[in-house]
Write a structure and sequence with these properties.
The complex is a heterodimer of chains A (about 220) and B (about 100). With about 220 residues, chain A is of the alpha+beta class. Chain A contains 6 helices and 8 strands. In chain A, the strands form 3 sheets. Chain A has a 4-stranded antiparallel β-sheet. With about 100 residues, chain B is of the alpha+beta class. Chain B contains 1 helix and 4 strands. In chain B, strands 2-1-4-3 form a 4-stranded mixed β-sheet, covered by helices on one side. In chain B, a hairpin with a 2-residue loop joins strand 1 and strand 2. The chains are: A alpha+beta (about 220), B alpha+beta (about 100).
Chain lengths: ~220, ~100
């Protein structure tokens, strides 16, 4: 548990400002699928549902801990919508994938070289700065998960500048919170917007998997 | 100076300003002429002291919450009402 080190009045004022900024536009966020369900300084819990689906699905909650904000960035946890326990990676319905331009993975290059994937297809699907003058493509759009984990039973985290989990990670020591603190990167509305954009809005419909099994239908056995 | 007609309300000023919510912080942008949404967004960022990130790192959404990717659109084309608001949120940036 993080100890509160900044003055409680300051922390409370900043926390209230974050909550008020969300509640002022609560109707707008609710239409998109986010609504506030619990406020208990220094934490606030938002719930995320899918307004485009019928019936709608409650995907998860997000608990944001604003202890020592904004001396420190907020901590973000995905929680169960009904009993509030921290979701494990296996329980997450989505990893909040986002398409990013990345170098083409070696296995895809090998598949292109072997003729299993037409090179024209890669070039057509990935126009942009990665395309070289000769028509050779060095980068392609690949889904990158904003939610990272260390295994199915671990607690996943939002790997995003503006969250405590991101800035505390040794891999991001060169991208400190101080570089983002005044940009609103840790604001509640920004975090809600990110989760809505990558976690809720891509949910376009229910996906049903049917696995038919065939067996021979024998009739009444003969005497 | 002509006297104001007491029976006639003032002309609405709703077309002279646009309300932009920048990462939850509301700011009123003065509209002079018919600027592009990009210009309105730049002004909103400036007024809220968000100078650290370029405009390309921000996402603009309209009053109906739908994204507006084309910032070259002129603001008057949106036909904003007085209580309509635009939303400017910082994109995800580098993650993972």
């Amino acid at each position: 548990m993080t100890t509160q080190v900044i003055h409680p009045d300051v922390a409370r004022a900043k926390f209230d400002a974050e909550v008020n900024a969300f509640t002022r536009d609560a109707a707008q966020y609710r239409r998109r699928g986010a609504y506030l369900v619990h406020v208990d300084f220094p934490t606030v819990t938002l719930m995320f549902a899918t307004p485009k689906l019928t019936p709608a699905a409650v995907l998860f909650g997000v608990r944001v801990d604003y202890t020592n904000y904004d001396l420190q960035p907020p901590s973000v946890r995905f929680v169960h919508p009904f009993d509030d326990h921290d979701l494990t990676a296996a329980e997450m319905p989505t990893k909040l994938p986002r398409l990013e331009s990345r170098p083409i993975p070696p296995e895809i290059l090998q598949a292109v070289a072997a003729g299993q994937i037409p090179a024209d297809q890669i070039a057509a699907e990935n126009p942009g700065p990665g395309q070289q003058p000769q028509g050779v493509v060095s980068e392609m759009m690949l889904p990158v998960a904003l939610v990272q984990d260390y295994g199915p039973e671990s607690i996943p985290f939002l790997c995003l500048a503006g969250t405590r989990e991101y800035h505390d990670h040794p891999g991001h020591s060169g991208d400190s919170w101080e570089l983002h603190r005044t940009s609103g990167a840790g604001s509640l509305v920004r975090l809600a917007n990110i989760v809505l954009t990558y976690g809720v809005e891509p949910a376009g419909g229910w996906s049903v998997t049917l696995a038919p099994q065939m067996t021979i239908g024998f009739g009444q056995p003969p005497q | 100076m002509a006297e104001k007609n007491p029976g006639k309300p003032d002309k609405p000023k709703d077309k002279d300003t646009a309300v932009v919510v920048v990462n939850g912080v509301e700011t009123i942008v003065g509209i002079h002429g018919n600027p592009s949404l990009g210009e309105v967004a730049e002004t909103a960022l400036e007024q809220t002291n968000n100078s650290g990130q370029p405009l390309v790192n921000w996402e603009l959404r309209g009053p109906d919450s739908s994204p507006i990717p084309d910032l070259s659109i002129k603001v008057k084309k949106l036909d904003l009402d007085a209580d309509d608001r635009l939303f400017l949120n910082l994109r995800a940036g580098i993650g993972g």
